[in-house]
Design brief:
Layout lengths: L2 H25 L9 H6 L20 E7 L4 H17 L4 E7 L3 H10 L6 E3 L1 H10 L9 E5 L5 E6 L4 H13 L3
Parallel strand pairs: 1-2, 2-3
Antiparallel strand pairs: 1-4, 4-5
């Protein structure tokens, strides 16, 4: 390879890397949530995978952690054990996790038979994508986690897998000093 080809290859590689990083950051971006997003979510008739209507009106006044997920999403499945542990840790502090399953009821039911959770699971369906967009996730990517303080305001959002330490830190902040 002569010097000119080597320089061309180096420049092309740099441009490809920069484009890749730019596209990745664009894909995993979040935007400010719509002001009515939480209220809109809580006024929906939310159903479990078994078709049971869930009492979302009793969720008001709690710190809520909404986690949009799907059984076919590896990072979603990987973070579920952490979410179960954190829900148990914060249950007595008026914190409630709600999983919003983005898949068919039968697929979610099958998944939950193998992987039980200690928090309610809501069927999102196509409307779940709109909820996520309204809460700051324009790409509807998964997993997507939203922390809502006890006053009903979105405190934090994260697109992508969340760590146990990061979520615990967010919850400590939301519980101790809601904005």
């Amino acid at each position: 390879m002569n010097k000119r080809q080597w320089i061309f290859t180096l420049i092309a590689g740099f441009i490809a890397g920069a484009l890749g990083m730019g596209l990745a950051s664009y894909q995993f971006r979040t935007v400010p949530a719509a002001h009515s997003a939480v209220e809109s979510f809580l006024t929906q008739q939310l159903r479990s995978p078994d078709g049971e209507v869930l009492p979302s009106d009793t969720w008001r006044g709690k710190t809520l952690v909404l986690n949009f997920w799907a059984p076919w999403c590896p990072p979603c499945v990987e973070e579920i054990p952490d979410l179960v542990r954190i829900q148990e840790k914060y249950r007595s502090k008026n914190v409630l996790f709600v999983g919003i399953g983005v898949d068919s009821p039968s697929n979610i039911r099958q998944f939950l038979l193998k992987t039980p959770v200690n928090y309610p699971i809501v069927l999102g369906g196509l409307e779940g994508s709109n909820w996520a967009k309204n809460m700051g996730n324009p790409s509807s990517g998964l997993p997507f986690t939203v922390v809502i303080d006890s006053k009903g305001r979105i405190n934090k959002v994260k697109l992508g897998k969340i760590s146990e330490d990061e979520l615990s830190s967010w919850l400590d902040s939301a519980i101790i000093s809601p904005k």
